[in-house]
Amino acid sequence: MSGSIEQRVRASGLRPTRQRVALASLLFGHGDRHISAEELHEEAAAAGVRVSLATVYNALHQFTEVGMLRILPIEGAKTYFDTNTSDHHHFFLEDENRLVDIPEGPVTVANLPEPPEGMEVAHVDIVVRLRPRRPR
User: How far apart are CA 45 and CA 131, in angstroms?
Assistant: First the structure.
């Protein structure tokens, strides 16, 4: 088990089980990335980590609840998880089903509606969908 990954899982308040640590190592061992549960499940299988898809989903949602991941629902049934939890926005490359971080810069959202009584805006996610130019 990777000591620093195990410590990160423990510091988040989760019990560092073998499966959680193995999945966290796959998630966080390669820098910031966007990944679906299915993709992580495939990576785990390729790495020899025996884990069900349901366990992968559970772990991803647990990591999200403790602030280790951000959840990004993009394609209806397709949900991506982002290891970069800072406030940032995304391009979605439609032909590749791939998310890319928008470089930091002047992205603004104006005229947000007033939230209902007792509520506050927690976060605004901007996803700009891209496709190759079509001939005119």
Answer: 31
**By C-alpha distance, which of 27, 52, 29, 28 is closest to 40?**
27
DSSP reduced 3-state for 122 = coil
Q: Is the pLDDT of residue 2 over 60?
A: no
CA distance 42 to 23: 11
Model pLDDT, residue 77:
64
Q: Is the pLDDT of residue 1 over 60?
A: no
CB atoms within 10 A of CB 66: 12
CA–CA gap between residue 91 and residue 49 (Å, rounded): 31
Percent of the chain with pLDDT over 90: 58
Q: How far is CA 123 from CA 41, 68, 78, 112, 119, in A?
A: 28, 16, 20, 11, 12
Q: What is the secondary structure of 88-106 as a DSSP string? A: --EEEETTTTEEEEPPSS-
